[in-house]
Structures are given as C-alpha cells and as structure tokens.
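Hi all, a correction to my earlier message: I attached the wrong file for Peptidase S1 domain-containing protein. Here's the right sequence:
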Amino acid sequence: SDRWQRRPPGRPRRHFVPPSTEDAAGTVRRRPPASAVHECGQRPLVDSISGSRIVGGHDARTGAWPWSVSLQIHQAGVRFAHVCGGVLVNKNSVLTASHCVTGRQDPHSWRAVLGVLNLQKHGKHAAKRTIRSITVHPEFKRETFENDIALFELDSAVRYSDYIQPICLPPAHLYPHIDNETECFISGWGRTAEKGKTSPVLKDAQVEIIPSSVCNSSDAYEGLVSNNMICAGSRSGGTDTCQGDSGGPLACYHPSTNKYYLIGIASFGVGCGRPKFPGIYVRLSQYRRWIKSELPLILGTIALTLRISILLSYNLDFEVNPK
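and the right structure:
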C-alpha cells in the first residue's frame, strides 16, 4: 500500500505567468485559458523551474505539478485513503506502479483525485474520478519489481486547467540527454521520513539521476537495478521518495522544448533517503511501446466520438447552408 522496500542481500528480504502581455506594438494579448492549451508538460501557474528543493523535500507550490494524481482506495462509508501517486498522461489516463494494485485490482474500489495540493482540502479546482479499468503490465514481477507499471483509465475525461495538465511522454531522442545538468524532480504525498507520517500536502524535491553502475555496486543494490529501472535521489542520502509516493512521477525539465517529461515512476528502495540507496524508478524509455499499445484503446473511443460529432456538425451545416 505504499512504496515497497527492499533490504540489501544477506539480510531478510523485505513563478507566475501574467494573465496578459503587451507586445512591441503595445497590443495587449491575453494568455489563453489553460483549458484551451493542449500541450503537455506545461505548468501554467509556475515558471519553468521550481526553486524549491517527500524525504528532504518542501511543500510544493500551487500548480507546480499539475499532472500529479492521488490514487485512493475506498474504505468504510464514504471515506477514501491515499495509497499511491499517479501521473496524468492524457484526459483519461493515469500511469502508476503495478505493485500499488496487488491484491486490489477491482477498479470500483479506487478513485483518482487531481488538481489538489492538500488532500484534506480539495478546493474548487479539484477533480475526482472513479476508475473504469486498471491494466497491469503483463510481465510485472512482484519479487523483483520488474515492469512495475500500470495504467488507470478514468471513468470520464478531466478538463485541463491551470491545476490539471498532462505530462509529456518523452520521445526516444531525449533519453541520451538525461544527465546531471538536467533538472529532475520528484513529488508525492508519501511519508516525509522513513518511519514518519504521510503528508497531506504535496511535497517535491530536486533529485540527481545516478548511474546504474553506482547503484548496483557491492555496497548498494548489488545488481538488483535492471536496465528497465532508473536510479535517482542523492548519493549522500536525505532526498528520496518514501511510502505512499509509489507510482508518482520522476519529471525532468528540458529547456529546449520548455516542457517536463516523465522519465520514471517511483517503484521501490531500501528504506527512505539512506546513503548509497537512492530511489528506484521504472525507466519510462523501456515502456513506450507498451504504453502506446494501451493508450489507443482509450484514445480510440475519444477519436471516434470526435469524428462522429464533426461529421454530424458538417452534415447539419450542409443541410442548412448547401454549397
């Protein structure tokens, strides 16, 4: 129900955009509403890079991570409890970690909450959605956390706003350029210390992408980090995802496109924030084909509906105004 932990082998396993701008000619041009912007990886309420630095993190600013989703399980009565993070990739789809749904794959027991900073104060910009379907990667292995990725299909599409936006799924050519010069961030509502409490307020932190060779050394993960995983955090410890952050985004900013891309999904680790044991994330670059094979099943319905509505409006227009 959280971010799964491993112990090392040998021990038991276990900045605001103005509403309008004036050009050189003195013409005032209003910024279009976020609902009209269909680009991914944009943060309408915040400048391109957050100044704030989960374990070792700070409270996120309003609208800082508009693709962050709280995935919650139904409890007694009308109560829901946050279980894992998720990442909005289009109006109907949220990516998360497969291990989050182990033993609870009934979509009707889940809901997604979007557009919130504080889980105890949803506010007018929040959106809540029931879940239509949950697709777990067919080759997910709980013992090794291989292929720890799943897709939630929302019952109805969300409306994009300053508070709800999709993150970009990165094209292949971006991956060679992920290095220590790239600004990468984690965010979530999980524990703020290894044995601490979860946070009702979204936290974020900047992290370093750490080479797998370093993470797989004999005094660290000892080869447990496969090519399908990515290591991120701080080599000296202190900055990490923790229980309740699983399924949340490892998001990296690319100045060349002025967009954020989903590089990883929080998966597992040894404790939280320990030196030599950074967080392990699903390496999204390895799953583009699987994600694309699943998304069209959802997007196809939207495209068909759109096509029908366009044809209907065209035919009506033709009947009223024959050319």
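Sorry for the mix-up. The longest strand covers residues 80-90.
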